[in-house]
Design goal:
Layout (H helix, E strand, L loop, with lengths): L2 E6 L2 E8 L3 E8 L4 E3 L2 E3 L2 E6 L3 H10 L2
Antiparallel strand pairs: 1-2, 2-3, 3-6, 4-5
């Protein structure tokens, strides 16, 4: 079950466990996406295994 860990302008970070064992964070990047008729296009999802929220946020800032 995914839980929302952090939400900011243009991104959301979710927490989950793969197979109930391996911790992972999922980054949903919507900074370069577009919304047409209620549907969001060009959203980027990235999985990070064994990372902290701060490390994922640093990765997000490096891709700007």
């Amino acid at each position: 079950m995914m839980h929302l860990v952090e939400e900011g302008k243009g991104y959301r970070i979710f927490s989950d466990k793969l197979f109930g064992i391996v911790p992972r964070l999922i980054l949903e990047d919507t900074r370069n996406s577009s919304i047409r008729l209620g549907v969001t296009y060009e959203v980027k999802f990235t999985n990070f295994y064994f990372k902290t929220v701060e490390q994922v946020k640093r990765t997000l800032n490096e891709t700007v």
